[in-house]
Design brief:
By secondary structure, the chain is of the alpha/beta class. Helices cover 31% and strands 26% of the residues. The longest helix is centred in the N-terminal third of the chain and has 16 residues.
Length: 217
């Protein structure tokens, strides 16, 4: 279906696309050309486009590097609520998480260490729950009074608090425990903080607490 392979057809390959869709429609699919002039397959009922999973370790294109620099610049200036609502919520929804709910900062007494919670349905139809503790700036291991950077030990305690408190899932009408906790740092994390957190996770709940740093966005 490459447009460059067209023979006895117009440049948009209208005839070939019509013949292909005549067979695909019976199965609930539709072929179409996107803006990049490539042919894609879409499920009509769910509007899901069939694509191959991109390799996260592949080299970034020039456009992707420019977008990454723009995102990093935004993370340096964005407030914590903007990081959660404008970056994390759309990101996790796109990754397939459900019921992505912002806990907010208005009532700290009811937050229990989580800024955001969500759930994910496994192929076995089992549901697992995730909580997120998000911090805007740099995370370090310093305990100096009045420091502007967040202390990793405090963040770790909040993540443990998140794992120990129930959340109410309105979809099932009952309270459930968080299975995994994400610590998301909008900025960098110092080497001392990484070492401290690594030792704690190795000794306790390594599989339950995971770390995201701004540069991986």
């Amino acid at each position: 279906m490459d447009k460059g392979d067209a023979q006895n057809d117009d440049a948009d390959r209208t005839g070939a696309l019509g013949l292909l869709n005549a067979a695909l429609t019976r199965e609930g699919f539709e072929a179409f050309y996107a803006a990049d002039k490539q042919c894609y397959l879409r499920h009509v009922a769910t509007d899901t486009i069939a694509t191959t999973s991109s390799n996260p370790h592949r080299p970034f294109s020039t456009a992707e590097l420019q977008r990454r620099e723009q995102l990093l610049a935004y993370l340096d200036s964005a407030a914590e609520d903007a990081l959660i609502e404008e970056i994390l919520v759309p990101l996790f929804r796109q990754l397939g998480f459900h019921r992505v709910t912002v806990a907010g900062h208005k009532d700290k007494a009811l937050e229990y260490g989580k800024d955001l919670w969500m759930k994910f349905t496994l192929p076995t139809q089992h549901v697992i729950y995730f909580g997120i503790q998000a911090k805007k700036g740099k995370l370090d291991a310093s305990g100096v009074s009045g420091a502007t950077n967040a202390n990793i030990a405090e963040i770790h305690n909040q993540a443990n608090m998140m794992l120990g408190h129930e959340i109410f899932d309105p979809d099932v009408g009952r309270r459930v425990l968080v299975d995994h906790a994400f610590i998301v740092a909008g900025g960098e994390i110092t080497k001392a903080a990484k070492n401290w957190l690594g030792n704690k996770l190795d000794a306790t709940k390594r599989s339950q607490i995971m770390l995201w740093i701004g540069t991986i966005f």
